[in-house]
Each structure stands twice: as C-alpha cells, then as structure tokens.
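Technical note accompanying the year-one report. For the benefit of new consortium partners, we illustrate the data format agreed upon in the data management plan: each record pairs a sequence with a structure-token string. No post-processing was applied to the example shown here.
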Amino acid sequence: MKINKIFSAVMAMLVSFMMLALPVNADEEITDDGNPVFAFSRAQTYTVEAGKKNEISIQIKNISPNDSKSTLITAVDEGGKLGITGNNISSLAIHSEMYTSFPVVLDVPATTLSGKYPLKLEFTAVNKHGVISEHELIADIIVKSNVVRNALSVSEYNISNGNVREGNIFDVNVTVKNGSGVAIDNARVELKNLDGQKFAMNKGVSYVISDFKKDEEKTFKFTVIACSGITSVRESIAVECSYYLDDADEDTLQKSEGVVTVSCSPKKTSGSEENVFAPNIIIKNYDFGADYVTGGKTFPLNVVITNTSNISAIKNLKVTVNGASGSGDKGIAFSPSNSSNSFFFEYLAQGADAEINLDMLTRADATPDSYPIEITFDYEYTTADGVEKANPVTETITIPVQQEDRFEVNSIDFMPECMVGEEVPISCTFVNKGKSSVYNVEVELIGDNIMTSQQKLYIGNVESGKEEYYDASFSAMEPGDFRGTVIVRYEDANGNLKEIEQEFEGYAMEMFFDEPVYDDGYIEDMPEEQGGFPLWAKILLIVGGIAIGIAVVIVVVVIIVKKKKANDALLLEDDEDY
C-alpha cells in the first residue's frame, strides 16, 4: 500500500513538472486592453524654405503592444506660418511596434522669417475593442528664409538749402531702400518730431505710403519749414520706416529708423544780423582698417574733419574722442590705447581738412553689434569783430564689433571595427569657446559604405561657454573600409554661414554564422527558430525525457518490491528453523 502511495506521488510530481515545462501560448494567456501610444521614430526636425512648396514625410511609430485598428492623423499649423496645403489628414491602421509615414505639404509664405516653428500632429485612435483615445505630438519645422528683419532703411538724403535759418522753407529728399529680401506692400516712411519747435511740415503730411519691389530704392520729398527753436548749427530729423511682413498679422510689424542732419544757422541773441555764425565742422570720412573690429584687439582709427564754412576760419580747435554706450545695456565698447584721446589744432582755414589718427582698444567681452564713438569739437571762430567762442559740437560714428569665432568640434567617439549590418554608436561634442552665441547649428553625418537612420540633426543656438552633444548610429553596408564625416554647420554672430568637418574611418568584417557541413559538401538546414530546435522538437524532447524518467522510477520501484519480497521470504525461513 505504501509503495502505491509513493508511486502515485512520484507520478504526480512528474506530471506537474511536464505541465510547467510545456511552452505557454502568450496570445491565449495574456490580454491587453490598453490604447496605442505614438512617438516619432527619430528626432523630428525638418528644414524647409520660405517661398517654396515643401513636401516632408514624418516618421511615426506605435511604441505600445496595442494595435490601432484605425488612426486619424491631422496636421495643424497653430502659428499660421507654415502654410499647410492639400490633404493634411490621413486615416490608417498602425499595428503594435509598426512604423508609418505621414506626408505633409508646406507652402511656406515668402514673408516668413527664418526660425523654428511648431507643427502639431493630432491622433484619434481606435483600438481593437473600439475604445477611442487621443494623442498629440509636436514636430519642429526649421524655416530658412532670405527675409531680413527691419530692412527698409534710409540709403541717402539731401537738403535743398545749404544753411537753414528760422523761417526758411526747404525740401528734405529721403531715399529709402528695400533690403528685406521680399516685396513690401503699404510701407510707411515718416519724418518724426515735426512739432513746430525746430521744424514743421510746410505743406502736406509728414508721411507717405508706398509699395517696394525687392531691392528697390525710392526717393520721397517732404517740404519743411524751419522754426524758432533752432539752437545748434546741426539739427536732426528722424526718419521712421515701418511695414508688415504680413498685413493680417500684427506680430510681423518691422520698424527701422534713420536720421537726416540739417545744417543750420541759429538766431543770434545779440548783435546785428550781419554777424557771422559759427562755422559748421563735420566728419568728412573715417576708417578703421577693416569691415569690422574684433573684441579684445586694438585697431587704427583715422578720422578726417572739415570746416565747411567759406567765410570763417576755426581757431583753437580741441577734438576729443570717446567711446559711448551701445544700445540697451551693452555698455562702452571702445577706449583709446596707448595714446591720448584729445587733439589740438591751432588753426583750420575755411573749407580745410584736418586728420586724426589713434589706436582704439575693443572691449574683450563686447556683444557683437555696432557701437558708437563720440567725437566732440570745442573751438573758436573768426568774425569781423574778432574771435568768438562756438558752442561745442558732438558727432557720432559707429563701428561694428565681432567676437573671434571659437566654435570647436571635439574628437569623434565610435568603434572603428565592426560587423557588416551591426549598429555602431557614434558621438561627438562641440563647445562654443567664443564670447558670442552661434546660431542655427545643424549636424549632418555622411560617408562611404555606411548607412544611418538619422542623417541630419538640428541643434539650434549654442550660447557662449556652452557644450552640446551629437549622438547617432550607423552601420556598414559591405565588408571592407568605411569612411564618414560629421559636418557641423552654423551661423556666427554676424550671420555668416560656417562649416566644420570631422572625419572618421574604420573597417567592417563580414558577418559569419556557424553552419555544419557534411562530407558531401551540403550545408545542414538551419533550425526553424534561430539559435535552437523547432517547437515540436522541444516538446518531443521534454516528453521523451519525462518518459525515460518514469521508466527509471518504475524499474527502481520493481527492484525495491522484488528485493522486499526476497527479504520477507528469507525471514519466513528463519522463523521456521526456530
């Protein structure tokens, strides 16, 4: 009886083991009623051009284990800058772990400025149980444009009177150029502050509305009268140019200002009307040796000044050169280097020129921009009655500052030896060691005998002192040498497009598989499942092993029973002997 119980227990254990050992059908045992989840299959940054129709294909993946029987995808241009055209809605099934492409056509308006604009994708998905879920993703669209901000400017001007006095009526002729890169409609050109203190409109209005073709120049005439508030030999009238890149969008307003300088003869407070007015001294021209100066370095400044009067000479002229504050909080960028900032001229005849030369030092941390230098004139002038003191006159010149470009790409990190088709990670860092930011940084990976899923990546702007990273992967297509180049493109602080290249190379080996070969030269067929036996063979081996185990148990039990019977018989014989 005990033997039967032992046998039954052993059999139960073996059956339990067999049930555990048999494979489980995951589709039958596991159910998932969840919704699909969508993501971009790679970094979603696309570059398009303003003024052109651009066709892009956005790669999307269902990263969940849940199928979507039906997915409605809608592209939405929330900012209204991208100009979606055609069919921007698609309906399709996206199964679990499945990739799909969503095409979008962007007819970007020609007036769109360069920059990054969001394109929203809205998903309405129905899973296998009919449950509806909603999702959204944002793709970055980089627009490249030739449109320049605030590019309607005063290119030149002239005054009909050479020397304006109170009560004079004169014409101000202003030439305005469209350098925006696109045609402009309804631009406004206006003379400002004609409030009757120094100047006023003699007739007509102080502004004009006009259209400009691309790169067109137009000249406008305003008739102005001089008023009693003129106090200086040089007065100025501001000119404001304004326009909308898009008339329907107030955010596209562009403004720029220019200045018209008017030579004047202020009214004398005493003396006769025959008194000679102070001669007008101006900066005839200036030069600083290049198109721009660099932060932290000295440059030669040459200034030529002129006594424009044909009546009065200038005596005891003192010229002082000082750096002035830039716009906003940018501070003073220039200071004299190893020299005085003051110059003295004992005499400057009528119509004569004088020249000033000095070295100026640019502040090392100056933000790239145009900075002013003020030149002040203190002088006396000759009259019929002798010498009189003139009011000080200050002229301003501007000089553009750039910082030395120190945007660098560090060494590339990758595995130089690999197998064909093997995914090889590659990374590099780049750092901006310069004093100013760099803009629109874009990284591209190209090469021979390599393939990558992410060829271009838009980084954006990199500020001074900041470091950015580029991580990607590639695979070799054929055995042998492979070569690649990481190209970093960017714009410096002055909008100049620059490029840095870093090359790399390595070797790809053919992918080998271990395949048994028989004596007749034929290769044994691979098993149905890579790396093992087919499922039916596994089950057969498990069942066979269990059967062998059962047989062994039965043999052991039979031997134990026979041995026990022999021992019982032997004990019975011993009892009979007694």
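Partners are asked to follow this layout when depositing records. The first strand starts at residue 38 and ends at 40.
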